[in-house]
Amino acid sequence: MIKKIELENFMQLKNQKLDFSNINIFAGVNDTGKTSLLKLLYASSKAREEDKNKSSIDKFDEHFSKKLRNVFDIEKLGNLVTKKEKSLKVELFFNDNSAHYFSFSSEDKKNFQTCSNLDNQNFLMQSTFLPPKEVLTIQKIIRTMVETYELKGYDDTYYDLVKSLDKPIAREEALSKEFKEADKELQESLDGELKQQENGSFRFEKDQQSFSISLTAEGVKKIGIINQLLKNKTIDKNTILIIDEPEVALHPSIIEKVAKILFDLSQVGVQIFIATHSYFILKSFQLLAYEHNKDVFFFNLDKKEGNIEIESSNLKNGIPKNEIVDSSIALFDRGNSIKIKKLGI
């Protein structure tokens, strides 16, 4: 679990200190740094996970440098430094009492100015990033571009997800009770089942019929991906699950169900990070937090005079003022104004 982050001069975010809970939701208008922050969290935790699992990695800082550049799809590290600033500094703190500190200048290409020398062998967490676009229909393209031609176009959040989907399904007895229940609820939401073929591709099966993944609804594919990751234990205890815009292609009634599943997973060892533009996401998690008296941290990123300010709050105490709520209220008020005008009042 990531306990907190302190950063200085990271892209749009100049100086921030954020504490995290089991569920963390980020909102804000476009270009306020939500996805960038999620990718930073992912790059650090994923690099530590990979370093633990690959004995061929001799120097963690070299591997982490490559991971940062691949996750952000950039040529040099210095591109992550806030414009007109000289250097970036970041420190992440984890629940195993370890900390990951690094810094580099706006001119640095691959090397850090400083990078903590971490022993990752006892790092128990694994990380998964779900980008807004589904990958099931393009998984072969992504693999070919990255592995065969080493071409840019899909950053490591997509490539890592494709590799995770290739993992074999775990035996049913290997899944804990809570994860079996989440799997069952997702399948009920799907009203069918995603099936992986021998060649690695997927098909959607429903009512004894099999459908090509390219003919399957976007929302079904999104839920199916989460379902598959639960079955192969990519999402398990000690997982950091990062989801960018989970509401994409999902009906509001399904959003509420998915929010409940994610909330339940957060109570059994999965840490959730979400970036969203959806009122339904906020309201679903606010009700769950209030009903169960659990912390759900909300971070509102607001652009003021060219700077990004982050206001943090706890959704169990209600939804604070933010652009999503303001836009919803403004639309409601506009509807009332049109009605009043038509009535001649």
Key traits:
345 residues, Rossmann fold, six-stranded mixed β-sheet, five-stranded antiparallel β-sheet, 9 helices, 38% helix
What does this structure look like?
It is built from nine helices and 14 strands. It is of the alpha/beta class and 345 residues long. It has a domain of 230 residues: P-loop containing nucleotide triphosphate hydrolases (Rossmann fold). It is globular, with a radius of gyration of 21 Å. The relative contact order is 0.15. The model has no long low-confidence stretch (mean pLDDT 91).
CATH-assigned homologous superfamily of one domain: P-loop containing nucleotide triphosphate hydrolases
Sheet with the most strands? 6 strands, mixed
* H/E element sequence: EEEHHEEEEHHHEEEHEHEHEEH
Separation, N- and C-terminal Cα atoms: 57 Å
**Overall average pLDDT:** 91
The CATH class of one domain is: Alpha Beta
Report the structural category: alpha/beta
Q: What percentage of residues falls in helices of 4 or more residues?
A: 25-40%
Shape: globular
Q: Tally the beta strands.
A: 14
- Rounded to the nearest angstrom, the radius of gyration is 21 Å
Summarize the structure.
With 345 residues, this protein is α/β, with parallel strands linked by helices. The protein contains 9 helices and 14 strands. It has a 6-stranded mixed β-sheet, sandwiched between helices.
